[in-house]
């Protein structure tokens, strides 16, 4: 590949470009390019190893619209994720560190794409794109906003309010507490989210621990007691206490209303 494209490689790119295809699948090139199965397999593998096309999964490859100048090519994050999810007929929403950065909670730009979805769990690589796929039940997908990229691709993100709830719910995965508490206070103060939005998202996508922790944050922020009671109605009477900051020792003052050991700054 260092010496340039061979005849079979040029024909593959011409085939995809003439049809406006972003992907090619194993099997479709045999008739179109008069290739035997082994020749097709070797051609696709050779191009993927050289970085001219990107393997989505075995038998499915993303192809650039135009030949890359340096010979190396990778799809962008959205194209890679959308192609994978369309292939498995799944739903997804970009979450965690990517959403935190998008909404300005955290300045750090993630090196991976984190996505809740209803099909795949684990790490994937598509070209230079690194994906962390978190499989969840269909009912845990939602609270999203859809935006369009410059290339006209639709991408689904967790909404601002949903991202705040995820920071508390999925704190262990995203390493987002106690930072998440500060983010919630800041967003409320700047009126970028409302307390009612947060309560709704918490009830729909949180668990008991999330309800307790966000309840305490909202209580401290002086939120309307009627909203707080909506959260309290979902909590059963319990003498068990959970820590305000899960990574610190369970020592501190007790907040009985929310069943919390306040073991750090509030």
Write the layout of secondary structure elements.
Blueprint: H1 7-19, E1 23-25, H2 28-32, H3 37-50, E2 54-57, E3 60-62, H4 77-87, E4 92-94, H5 96-102, E5 113-117, E6 122-126, E7 129-135, E8 144-148, E9 154-158, H6 160-169, H7 171-174, H8 179-189, H9 195-205, H10 208-220, H11 225-232, E10 242-243, E11 253-255, E12 260-262
Parallel strand pairs: 5-7, 10-12
Antiparallel strand pairs: 1-3, 2-3, 4-5, 6-7, 8-9, 11-12
Low-confidence stretches: none
Hey, roughly how much beta strand do the residues contain? 15-25%
Choose one word for the global shape: elongated
Order of neighbouring strands in the sheet with most strands: 4-5-7-6
Biggest sheet layout = 4 strands, mixed
The rounded distance between the terminal residues' Cα atoms is 59 Å
Radius of gyration computed on alpha carbons: 24 Å
Oligomeric state of the chains? Answer: single chain
């Amino acid at each position: 590949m260092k010496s340039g494209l061979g005849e079979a490689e040029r024909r593959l790119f011409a085939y995809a470009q003439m049809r406006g295809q972003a992907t090619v699948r194993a099997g479709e090139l045999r008739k179109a390019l008069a290739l035997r199965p082994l020749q097709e397999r070797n051609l696709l593998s050779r191009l993927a190893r050289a970085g001219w096309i990107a393997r989505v999964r075995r038998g499915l490859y993303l192809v650039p619209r135009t030949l890359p100048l340096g010979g190396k090519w990778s799809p962008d994050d959205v194209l890679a994720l959308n192609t994978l999810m369309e292939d498995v007929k799944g739903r997804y929403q970009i979450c965690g560190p990517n959403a935190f950065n998008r909404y300005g909670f955290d300045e750090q730009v993630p090196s991976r794409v984190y996505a809740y979805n209803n099909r795949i769990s684990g790490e994937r690589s598509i070209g230079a794109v690194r994906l962390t796929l978190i499989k969840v039940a269909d009912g845990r997908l939602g609270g999203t906003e859809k935006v369009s990229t410059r290339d006209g691709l639709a991408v689904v993100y967790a909404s601002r309010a949903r991202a705040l709830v995820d920071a508390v719910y999925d704190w262990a995965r995203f390493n987002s507490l106690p930072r998440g508490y500060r983010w919630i206070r800041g967003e409320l103060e700047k009126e970028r989210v409302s307390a009612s939005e947060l309560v709704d998202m918490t009830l729909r996508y949180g668990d008991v621990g999330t309800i307790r922790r966000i309840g305490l944050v909202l209580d401290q922020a002086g939120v309307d007691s009627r909203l707080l009671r909506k959260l309290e109605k979902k909590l059963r009477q319990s003498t068990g206490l959970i820590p305000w900051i899960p990574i610190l020792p369970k020592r501190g003052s007790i907040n009985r209303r929310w069943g919390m050991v306040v073991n750090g700054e509030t």
